[in-house]
Amino acid sequence: MTALSREELMSRLVTTLHETFEIPVERITPRAKLYEELDIDSIDAVDLIVRMKPLLGGRRMSPDAFKQVRTVQDVVDALYALLNDAPEQKAS
């Protein structure tokens, strides 16, 4: 399975956020804060992880990785790192 690029992951994440949570696409930017700006709560975050799971090709993301996620870009970076077997990195 070919790993997805960051751009492909962002595109799929935007689609998922829009279709699942009815968030207007124009609000879903890399810097958008999931909880404060997009009104994603902890239950929604779990649902988002479940919906992104097919992109992971059987890999599992540790719950700790998502504790560090604050923005849309953080989600993309965490997924990208997992898909490319890179160490998960904190957003700065």
CATH architecture assignment name: Orthogonal Bundle
Low-confidence segments:
87-92
Helical percent range? 40-55%
Q: Oligomerization state of this entry?
A: single chain
Our count of helices gives 4
* Helix-strand pattern: HHHH
Please report the distance between the alpha carbons of the first and last residues.
30 Å
Q: Kindly provide the radius of gyration, computed on alpha-carbon positions and rounded to a whole number of angstroms.
A: 12 Å
Largest sheet: none
In brief, what are we looking at here?
With 92 residues, this protein is mainly α. The chain is built from four helices and no strands.
Q: Can you describe what's shown?
A:
With 92 residues, the chain is mainly alpha-helical. The chain has a single domain, classed as Non-ribosomal Peptide Synthetase Peptidyl Carrier Protein, Chain A. Helix content is 48%, strand content 0%. The chain has four helices and no strands. It has helices at residues 6-21, 42-52, 63-67, 72-83. Helix 1 crosses helix 2 (42-52) and helix 1 crosses helix 4 (72-83). The protein is globular and about 30 Å long.
Which key terms come to mind for this protein?
92 residues; Non-ribosomal Peptide Synthetase Peptidyl Carrier Protein, Chain A
Outline the fold blueprint.
Blueprint: H1 6-21, H2 42-52, H3 63-67, H4 72-83
Helix pairs in contact: 1-2, 1-4
